Amino acid sequence: MSKLRHVIASFSVMLFSCLAQVIDCFTIRDYLMHKFTLLLFCALLAACTQGNNDSRGEVPSPIAIKRPAYPANAFHQRLTGDVMLSYDVDANGNVINPVVVSDTANGAFNREALNAISGWKYEPNKPYKGMTKNIKFMINRQ
Fold first, then answer.
1. Cα–Cα distance measured from residue 85 to residue 24, given in angstroms and rounded to the nearest whole number
2. Nearest-angstrom CA–CA distance, 80 and 112
3. Which pTM was predicted?
């Protein structure tokens, strides 16, 4: 990452010096050379940025899903809610590092949501960091 920052900083200095020189250019050849340098810088910057966004790899698909249990206490109180989870998937397809990002029921469903997501299995050989999942807890009215 530090090499990327160094390259971007170097090109930024070059870009600003080119822009300053464009103002003083008198020939079309010089002007076109400076435009080419600017275009090259923009292309390099775009390529570096695209590489950073894609560094997490391909998003794996779940192959086994464990449904959460409805907590008895929440069922008796007729509570409903959502739990937003964040987690990573390792190379074996296992869920690791699950954490509750937010919930709408003051923690009533957090334990069951964490237990459920920990039992999910994803495609192997597609590790991924920063997966998110919103789990809804609703009571069916029949």
1. 56
2. 13
3. 0.60
Alpha carbons 76 and 136: distance in angstroms, whole number: 17
* 17-70 pLDDT, tens digit each: 555 554 554 577 666 666 666 555 555 555 554 443 334 678 999 999 999 999
What six digits make up the tokens of 2? 């530090």
pLDDT at 122: 97
Name the one residue in this structure whose structure tokens are 């990452």.
Answer: 1
* Angle, in degrees to the nearest 10, between helices 2-24 and 28-53: 160
Distances (CA, A) of 119 to 91, 98, 112, 135: 15, 11, 11, 14
Phi, psi dihedral angles at 20 (to 5 degrees): -65, -40
Q: How far apart are CA 44 and CA 37, in angstroms?
A: 11
Closest CA to 18 of 5, 4, 6, 33: 33
| β-bridge mates for residue 88, sequence order | 96
Phi and psi of 42, rounded to 5°? -60, -40
